Amino acid sequence: MTVSSAVQIVPASITDALALAHVSWRPTLLRGLQAVMAADPAYLPALAIDDYLPTQGRLFAAFALPLDQVRQVLVGEGPYPRAESATGVCFMDGAVGSLWSATGLSKPVNRATSLRNFMKMLLVADGQLQTGATSGAAMAPVAAAALLPGSGMIQTLPDLQHKLTQQGFLLLNAALVFRSHVPPVQDARGWLPFLQVVLEALAGQEGAALPQLVLWGKIAEQVRRLPVAARLPQVAAEHPYNLSFIDNSDMQALFGPMQLLRKSEDYANS
Fold first, then answer.
1. Has this prediction a pTM greater than 0.90?
2. DSSP code per residue over 47-80
3. Looking at domain 3-81+164-256, what is its CATH homologous superfamily?
């Protein structure tokens, strides 16, 4: 099957969403969609006429980072189940602006349980919180200090997404869509052929180090079934909606040195 025939077969509303992906990704993503069609010809046509999140053509928004800049592939479960929150980028809740409040994390962060626990894990890894003491009275002075002028701490969720992008993170979900009437694990199975093609493209770059898979939760761990996964370094954790994620030593060791909550030079000088 040629690329041109694949465009004819994949529903236009799906291929139109490739516009938000970086140009370096588009041929790969089209091959991935072709692989989905080959595995289950009914899946994408059914999706195209269904209601799903993310909206606004953001199905492939995670692929804004150029292919050759990807060094980590973080795979979560699926989009947030709220239209204002689902951005097409794993774990980035569109309803969140400010990260901090006078008494702790902001209300939108606390509502986004996974994001809340991720931030608390980062604060433990940075030594600003202690294991087992990450709520209430412990959070208040940390947040108050973060809000001070010149604190050196990032202030918004877009800041955090920028920091992750700087570290070469491709922020994917195992299921690129959320549908209220379809179990996420079922949609995730539908996207496995697509993820195989994506990871093959990353693993096949000449002279480039293999990207690391960072798998969050049981649905994301389905990626391990893909043939290409055996070629990639991996680290896995429970999904961040579990409180135990805060104390996960593997995640603290991975993310701690990145200092994601601290401003980088381009932010400090802006």
1. yes
2. HHTS--BS-TT-TTGGGGS-GGG--EEEEES---
3. Uracil-DNA glycosylase-like domain (3.40.470.10)
